[in-house]
C-alpha cells in the first residue's frame, strides 16, 4: 500500500501494534457485544404509500413507524429512486475515490470537504478507517466544487434531489403518525445543513479490531443510506450487535437523535458502526436530513423528556464532548 494513500498508515500501525499499552494494560474488545448472525432489517415496500387503497396506505405508514420505534432502522423498496441513477452515482463515486490522496485532499473538490480517518484519535476505539467527502446540498450545484468531474455534478444534483424528496416523504409519514401535519418539519430543514456524505472504506490490512466507522448515533432527523454488497454495517439491537445483510434493491433508513428528541423517545436513534474488511473495500452514500442551526428542537408531546435546544447547540455540545473525551455523549446531555 502506498504510504500517502492512506496517509496515516504508519500512525495506525504504531498505535495498533501495542493496543494493550494504549489502553492502560487492558485489551480493547472491538466487539462490545455479541455479534448475532447476519439479519434482515424490516423491509417496507413504499408502493403501499402510493396505493389507492386506504388500508394499504395505513398499513405501510404504521410499518414505518413501528420499525422506527422498535429498530430505529428499516429498509425501503420501491423508493422512487431510479436504479440507473444509483448505478451512475456509484460509478462516479468510485472514480472520485480512486484519485491520488493529494488531489482529493488539496484540489478543493466538493467544497474542500475531503477527510481521511481520525487524525485526532489516540487509541484504537477512536479510529475510523474511512475516507469521505461531506457536501451541503446548497453547494452541490456549484461548478467550482467539481473541477474535472463535471459529470459528477450532474449526477449528484439528480441524486440529492431524489434523496431529499424521499427523506421528506418518510419524515412526513413519521410526524403524521405522531398526530402532526406531515409538513411540520419542512420549514426548519433546508439545504444549508442537509448534506450528502460519500464514503469509502478501503480494505484494512492492519488489524481486525479496526473500525471502518466507530460506534455512534446520527445527529440529524433521519439518514438514508445507499450501500454496496460488501457488508460491514452493524447496529445495536437488544444489547447485541446485529450484522445487517445487504439488499441490493433496498435503501436503508435510520432515525437520528433529533427525531428521537422531537418524538419524545417514540422513535429510536440507535447506535451503529461499520466493521473494517481486511480484503475488500466498501462504498456507501448517506443523505442526512437536518434542520437549520438556529431551529429549536422541542418535544412533540408533553411531558417532555428533553429540554429545548437548537441544532447548532447540539452540534457544538457533541463536538466539545468528542474533543474532551474522544466520544459523543449526545441526547443524554439534554435530558430534563
Structure description:
This protein is an alpha+beta fold. The chain has a single domain (29-308), classed as B-lactam Antibiotic, Isopenicillin N Synthase, Chain (Jelly Rolls, Sandwich). It contains 9 helices and 15 strands. It has helices at residues 9-17, 19-22, 54-70, 83-97, 101-106, 109-112, 150-176, 257-262, 311-325; strands at residues 35-39, 43-45, 73-77, 114-116, 131-136, 195-201, 211-216, 222-227, 233-237, 240-244, 251-255, 272-275, 282-289, 296-297, 309-310. The strands form 3 sheets. The protein has an 8-stranded mixed β-sheet. Strands 1-10-9-12-7 form a 5-stranded mixed β-sheet, with no helix packed on it. A two-stranded antiparallel ribbon has the order 14-15. α4 packs across α7. The longest helix is centred in the middle third of the chain and has 27 residues, at 150-176. Residues 18-35 have low confidence and may be disordered.
Helices, strands, pairings?
Blueprint: H1 9-17, H2 19-22, E1 35-39, E2 43-45, H3 54-70, E3 73-77, H4 83-97, H5 101-106, H6 109-112, E4 114-116, E5 131-136, H7 150-176, E6 195-201, E7 211-216, E8 222-227, E9 233-237, E10 240-244, E11 251-255, H8 257-262, E12 272-275, E13 282-289, E14 296-297, E15 309-310, H9 311-325
Helix pairs in contact: 4-7
Highlighted features:
336 residues; alpha+beta; Jelly Rolls; eight-stranded mixed sheet; five-stranded mixed sheet; 9 helices; 15 strands; globular; iron; dioxygenase; DIOX_N
Amino acid at each position: 500500500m502506498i504510504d500517502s494513500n492512506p496517509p496515516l498508515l504508519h500512525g495506525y500501525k504504531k498505535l495498533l501494534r501495542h493496543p494493550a499499552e494504549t489502553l492502560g494494560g487492558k485489551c480493547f474488545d472491538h466487539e462490545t457485544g455479541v455479534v448475532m448472525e447476519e439479519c434482515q432489517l424490516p423491509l417496507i415496500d413504499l408502493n403501499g404509500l402510493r396505493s389507492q387503497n386506504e388500508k394499504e396506505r395505513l398499513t405501510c405508514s404504521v410499518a414505518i413507524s413501528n420499525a422506527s420505534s422498535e429498530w430505529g432502522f428499516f429498509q425501503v423498496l420501491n423508493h422512487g429512486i431510479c436504479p440507473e441513477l444509483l448505478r451512475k452515482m456509484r460509478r462516479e463515486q468510485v472514480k472520485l475515490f480512486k484519485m491520488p490522496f493529494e488531489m482529493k485532499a488539496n484540489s478543493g473538490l466538493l467544497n474542500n470537504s475531503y477527510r481521511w480517518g481520525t487524525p485526532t484519535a489516540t487509541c484504537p476505539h477512536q479510529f475510523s478507517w474511512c475516507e469521505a467527502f461531506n457536501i451541503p446540498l446548497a453547494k452541490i450545484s456549484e461548478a467550482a466544487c467539481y473541477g474535472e468531474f463535471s459529470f459528477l455534478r450532474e449526477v449528484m444534483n439528480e441524486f440529492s434531489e431524489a434523496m431529499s424528496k424521499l427523506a421528506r416523504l418518510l419524515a412526513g409519514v413519521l410526524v403524521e403518525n405522531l398526530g402532526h401535519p406531515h409538513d411540520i418539519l419542512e420549514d426548519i430543514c433546508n439545504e444549508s445543513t442537509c448534506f450528502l456524505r460519500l464514503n469509502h472504506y478501503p480494505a484494512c490490512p492492519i488489524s481486525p479490531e479496526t473500525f471502518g466507522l466507530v460506534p455512534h448515533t446520527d445527529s440529524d432527523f433521519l439518514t438514508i443510506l445507499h450501500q454496496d454488497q460488501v457488508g460491514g454495517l452493524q447496529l445495536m439491537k437488544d444489547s447485541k450487535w446485529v450484522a445487517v445483510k445487504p439488499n441490493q434493491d433496498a435503501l436503508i433508513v435510520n432515525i437520528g437523535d433529533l427525531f428521537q428528541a422531537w418524538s419524545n423517545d417514540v422513535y429510536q436513534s440507535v447506535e451503529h458502526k461499520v466493521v473494517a474488511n481486511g480484503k475488500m473495500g466498501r462504498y456507501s452514500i448517506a443523505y442526512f436530513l437536518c434542520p437549520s442551526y438556529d431551529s429549536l428542537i422541542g418535544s412533540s408531546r408533553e411531558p417532555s423528556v428533553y429540554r429545548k435546544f437548537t441544532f447548532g447547540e447540539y452540534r457544538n455540545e457533541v463536538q466539545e464532548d468528542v474533543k474532551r473525551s474522544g466520544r459523543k455523549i449526545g441526547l443524554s446531555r439534554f435530558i430534563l
